Amino acid sequence: MFTRAEKGSTEESENHSDGDADGDTDDHSEEEQSEEDEDSLIEDLSKLRIVDLRAELKKRKQPVGGLKAELVARLAKARQNDAE
């Protein structure tokens, strides 16, 4: 059995070992955030009507033909390029 002090020190050491073993948690979180942003953008664009998607693509001088999923992907890519 642990004494109260020993048990507390064991819990503290366990709590401090929650970090990533490689120490590169920041790299993963930035990549994950970027993927989440892209997914969120595609989700938002998917809510638009095809007519609206085509209008946005036309403003950006992008091809306006294709299935809705293609229009969404094309517009998402165009918007990301605009942001850069």
From TrEMBL:
Organism annotation: Planoprotostelium fungivorum
* Domain SAP residues, every copy: 45-79
SMART domains membership? SAP
Q: Which residue stretches does the UniProt record annotate as biased composition, category Basic and acidic residues?
A: 1-19
Protein name as annotated: SAP domain-containing protein
Acidic residues biased stretches: 20-42
List the SUPFAM superfamilies hit by this protein, alphabetically.
SAP domain
What are the TM regions of this chain, as residue ranges? none
Alphabetical list of Pfam families matching this protein: SAP (PF02037)
